[in-house]
Write a structure and sequence with these properties.
This protein is an alpha+beta fold and 255 residues long. Helix content is 16%, strand content 53%. It contains 4 helices and 15 strands. The chain is elongated and about 65 Å long. The termini are far apart.
Length: 255
């Protein structure tokens, strides 16, 4: 009986010590063991704890995004759910949101907000003679990754202070986008201008693991000569002076 009692005491002690270690484990130590599982994600200057910490730099596929702060809620762990409040802050990139991994392996994003420079999308447009100006801000109200498919996704985006420089100089109307997931696991959306500037735009786009596909019709309002000149470098010029832009490509080329 004494042996059983001592084994029970040792078991309780092991659980307490293990809990204390997990509760206070430095984030730097935890990252050393976890890094191989994160593939293209790299962290430097990691400090704090597993539950609340900071990284001086986070990069994905070698692209530097800025600093990272995180906070992991402890209570949901009792239900085998990991909930993390994340914030990325860089020189021209800003993002925040709630990331949750359920006991069934589903990964969900909620209330995410982002701001990135428009130049980030230059590889997709593939217009080497022009540089994209302005920034793209947006919200992702929700999205879930289940069995390799994106479901229940919905969000909006806005290209503000939009324009181009290079072979031609022009400023656009703000470009608006709405998007949502489709039954096949892809994300589809529409594009339109805000009606307040000299660029008239309408189109649609879709994104899936196989790649991205987009089509837009662009034209100049109010006989804007600089804008008409810029449209000559964007897409296929049409007889009426407008431009038909078609974009197709693979996602990995954006990184």
């Amino acid at each position: 009986m004494k042996l059983i009692k001592w084994l029970f005491v040792l078991l309780v002690l092991a659980v307490v010590v293990g809990g204390v270690v997990a509760w206070t484990m430095p984030a730097e130590v935890a990252w050393r063991y976890a890094a191989p599982r994160f593939g293209p994600v790299s962290l430097v200057g990691v400090r704090g704890t597993v539950w609340e910490g900071h990284a001086d730099g986070v990069s994905v596929f070698g692209r530097d995004l800025g600093e990272l702060d995180w906070r992991i809620a402890k209570a949901p762990l009792l239900r085998r759910v990991v909930t993390a409040d994340l914030r990325i802050k860089g020189a021209d990139i800003d993002g925040s949101g709630l990331l949750e991994r359920g006991g069934d392996g589903r990964i969900s994003v909620r209330d995410a907000r982002f701001r990135v420079p428009a130049t980030l999308f230059a590889p997709a447009l593939d217009i080497p003679s022009l540089t994209l100006l302005g920034s793209v801000t947006g919200t992702l109200s929700q999205a879930t990754l289940a069995d390799g498919r994106v479901v229940d996704a919905a969000g909006t985006a806005r290209w503000s202070e939009a324009g181009v420089s290079g072979q031609a100089e022009a400023r656009f109307s703000d470009i608006l986008a709405d998007f949502a997931s489709k039954p096949d696991g892809s994300i589809a959306g529409t594009i339109a201008d805000d009606g307040k500037g000299n660029l008239e735009a309408s189109g649609r786009f879709s994104v899936s693991p196989a790649g991205y596909d987009a089509e837009a019709f662009l034209s100049a309002r109010n006989d804007d000569a600089r804008l008409r000149d810029a449209l000559q470098y964007i897409g296929q010029p049409q007889p009426d002076g407008s431009s038909h832009l078609v974009i197709r490509g693979e996602l990995f080329k954006l990184f």
